[in-house]
Write a structure and sequence with these properties.
Elements: E1 13-19, H1 24-37, E2 42-49, E3 55-61, E4 64-71, E5 76-83, H2 86-97
Antiparallel strand pairs: 1-5, 2-3, 3-4, 4-5
Length: 99
């Protein structure tokens, strides 16, 4: 994949939240869609299903990363997006607030 890189300032914007959804397939679908609608550039994706319970996935973005960690025993999921683009992060936050 070819990515156009732009020089950016050393500044990171962050959004952290907890949600009640713990289904990995649903979380992947929803949050990848949010990334695309926010115009983030997805470089790669990785995931791991833990043997007993729990799931973690990670999108490497040209603008930083999004990580999701489920805690099904507590019926909640931690989501954290870090980005060097305030405008894309703000669009992402708008999308998740509309849910």
């Amino acid at each position: 994949m070819e990515v156009d890189y732009k020089k950016t300032e050393a500044e990171i914007f962050n959004h952290k939240t907890w949600v009640e959804e713990t289904n990995p397939e649903l979380l992947k679908s929803i949050y990848e869609n949010y990334l695309k609608k926010s115009e983030f550039t997805i470089i790669s994706f990785s995931e791991h299903y833990f043997k007993e319970q729990g799931y973690t996935c990670f999108w490497l973005l040209a603008e930083s990363h999004l990580a999701i960690h489920t805690f099904p025993e507590n019926n909640k999921t931690y989501i954290e997006l870090s980005s060097c683009s305030a405008s894309k992060l703000n669009k992402f936050k708008e999308l998740i607030s509309d849910v």
